[in-house]
Specification:
The protein is mainly alpha-helical. The chain has a single domain, classed as Hypothetical protein af1432 (Orthogonal Bundle), CATH 1.10.3210. It is built from eleven helices and no strands. The protein is globular and about 60 Å long. It starts with a helix and ends with a helix. The protein binds adenosine-5'-diphosphate and nickel (II) ion.
């Protein structure tokens, strides 16, 4: 199997494992992350197969989406071996997808990712900001019965991983201050930072408009 055929199989595998998700991690998210990773990798000298495979697979072993992550890792390694992805490449892909999530950057748990991982992480984070990011936050917040906004509840200054997952008293608007507005400065590659500028401005404009309307100022 050549690498294009391998990627088709990997895409199908990801699709089979992601289509059920209704928390903003559906296959549409995967498609956007793959497209952005492809775009970012053209300006960097990254291995295409590892980058795109990790982009397709970055959510299939997530502990908040699968009941048994260890089992998911085993199943995934077997699948990659079956389609002829080499052992070292499989290890790189697994290392990236096990260490790239935003939650991993809390608690000082961040590990240095290889270039391919930095690109996929940037692509994943870019999908959490801008117009898409606004939509996903509202979608996620609605799914988890968060309040839209409550000016009496202050955004949490900094969070551990456990606190990030604790949604008591969380509001959709506070999520912007706790996570989304901070993403811009966490990005790895210059090209992603460039793309984030415009997306950041859209979020700031949205928040300003939202608060003005909330307070009947407009
Ligand atoms: P990741 O898998 O990148 O760590 P998450 O599962 O934390 O991402 O988040 C998935 C999407 O839902 C992102 O767009 C994120 O901004 C949004 N989201 C996460 N937590 C909240 C929250 N408490 N309120 C609103 N949106 C959220
Ligand atoms: Ni993702």
């Amino acid at each position: 199997m050549n690498s294009e055929q391998q990627l088709t199989k990997i895409s199908e595998y990801s699709h089979d494992h992601m289509t059920q998700d209704r928390t903003g991690h559906g296959f549409d998210h995967i498609r956007r992350v793959v497209a952005m990773a492809r775009k970012l990798s053209t300006t960097e000298n990254a291995n295409q197969l590892v980058t795109l495979a990790a982009a397709y697979l970055h959510d299939v072993i997530d502990d908040k989406l699968v009941a048994d992550p260890q089992q998911a890792v085993t199943e995934l390694s077997d699948f990659l071996a079956e389609i002829g992805v080499s052992q070292p490449q499989t290890e790189q892909i697994l290392f990236i997808i096990q260490n790239m999530s935003f939650a991993h950057t809390l608690d000082g748990q961040a590990v240095k990712l290889p270039l391919e991982g930095q690109i996929v992480q940037d692509a994943d984070w870019l999908d959490a900001i801008g117009a898409i990011g606004i939509t996903r936050a509202i979608y996620f917040g609605g799914h988890h019965s968060e309040k839209i906004y409550d000016p009496r509840i202050s955004p949490r200054e900094s969070m551990t991983r456990a606190e990030y997952r604790n949604l008591d008293n969380e509001t959709i608007i506070n999520h912007f201050y706790e996570k989304l507005l901070k993403i811009k400065d966490k990005l790895n590659t210059p090209s992603a930072r460039q793309i984030a500028e415009n997306r950041q401005q859209h979020m700031l404009d949205f928040l300003a408009e939202f608060k003005a309307e909330w307070n009947a100022e407009k």
